[in-house]
C-alpha cells in the first residue's frame, strides 16, 4: 500500500497513517513485517526518522524528519509542548458537559502497575462534536447505545494519554481493547463493519523548525466515521 503524503519538503514529511499500521517495528510485535517507517523509507527511497508516535490502532497525521538534525529539533518541540495536536475520538456514553479539561497525572509506563512509578503531569482538553444514539443493544437495560464524537487536544504527549484520560472520565474510546469493554467493542465492530480503535489524529499545527513557516497538517477521518467528524 502506498502511504498518503500530506506534506513533504526537504526537511520533513507527514503521512496519513492508516489504522493497524505500526509506526516502526518493535520487539513486542516482532512477527510484523510492515511498519510506517520502513514503508515510507522505501516509498521515498531515502531514510526517514520518526519524531513522535501514534498507537498502532490510531490513524491520521504522522510526522517524520528527513535528517537526524531536524528529527532532534522536532523531537524537542514535541517535548516542550510546541505542537498543537487535535484528535477525533468516538467514545462510550454522553459526557455531562459539552467540553472540559482532564487534568490527571499518568504513570510513565501504562504497561506496568502504576504503584511505584513516577506520575507525570498530563492534561487533555476535549469538546463534544456530536451526540449519537445508535440502534444497538449492548446492555439489556437500554434499547439503544449512546456514543459521543469528541475532539481531544492532549497538552502533553504521554503514552496512551487520550485513551487513559477518556477512560478516567468513564468515556472510553470505542474499540479500545485495553480500556473499553469487549462486548461493546465487538457489537460496534459488527455495526460499523470494521474492528479498530476509533481514534484519529486529525490535525497537527506547528512552526517549521527550519523555515519558520506556520504549518497546518490535516488528515480527513475517512470512511466509517459518523457525520460531524
Features:
4 helices; two-stranded antiparallel ribbon; 17% helix; ten-stranded mixed beta sheet; globular; alpha+beta; Pseudouridine synthase; 229 residues
Work out the number of β strands. 12
Q: Could you say what the CATH topology is called?
A: Pseudouridine synthase
CATH class: Alpha Beta
Biggest sheet details: 10 strands, mixed
Q: Which spans of ≥5 residues are poorly predicted at pLDDT below 50? A: none
How widely separated are the two ends?
Answer: 25 Å
For the record, the CATH architecture stands as: 2-Layer Sandwich
Q: What's the mean pLDDT score?
A: 93
Relevant CATH superfamily = Pseudouridine synthase
Rg over alpha carbons: 18 Å
Described by the principal axes of the CA atoms, the overall outline is globular
Strand content: 25-35%
Amino acid at each position: 500500500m502506498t502511504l498518503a503524503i500530506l506534506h513533504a519538503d526537504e526537511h520533513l514529511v507527514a503521512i496519513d497513517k492508516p489504522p493497524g499500521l505500526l509506526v516502526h517495528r518493535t520487539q513486542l510485535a516482532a512477527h510484523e513485517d510492515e511498519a510506517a517507517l520502513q514503508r515510507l523509507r522505501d516509498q521515498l527511497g531515502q531514510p526517514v526518522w520518526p519524531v513522535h508516535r501514534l498507537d498502532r490502532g490510531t490513524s491520521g497525521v504522522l510526522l517524520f524528519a528527513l535528517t537526524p538534525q531536524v528529527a532532534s529539533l522536532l523531537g524537542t518541540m514535541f517535548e516542550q509542548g510546541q505542537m498543537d495536536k487535535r484528535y477525533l475520538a468516538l467514545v462510550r456514553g454522553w459526557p455531562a458537559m459539552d467540553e472540559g479539561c482532564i487534568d490527571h497525572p499518568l504513570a510513565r509506563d501504562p504497561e506496568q502497575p502504576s504503584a511505584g512509578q513516577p506520575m507525570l503531569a498530563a492534561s487533555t482538553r476535549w469538546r463534544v462534536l456530536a451526540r449519537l444514539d445508535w440502534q444497538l443493544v449492548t446492555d439489556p437495560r437500554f434499547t439503544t447505545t449512546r456514543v459521543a464524537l469528541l475532539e481531544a487536544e492532549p497538552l502533553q504527549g504521554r503514552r496512551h494519554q487520550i485513551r487513559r484520560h477518556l477512560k478516567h472520565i468513564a468515556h472510553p474510546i470505542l474499540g479500545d481493547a485495553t480500556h473499553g469493554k469487549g462486548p461493546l467493542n465487538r457489537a460496534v465492530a459488527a455495526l460499523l463493519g470494521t474492528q479498530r480503535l476509533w481514534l484519529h489524529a486529525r490535525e497537527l499545527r506547528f512552526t517549521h523548525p527550519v523555515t519558520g513557516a506556520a504549518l497546518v497538517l490535516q488528515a480527513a477521518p475517512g470512511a466509517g466515521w459518523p457525520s460531524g467528524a
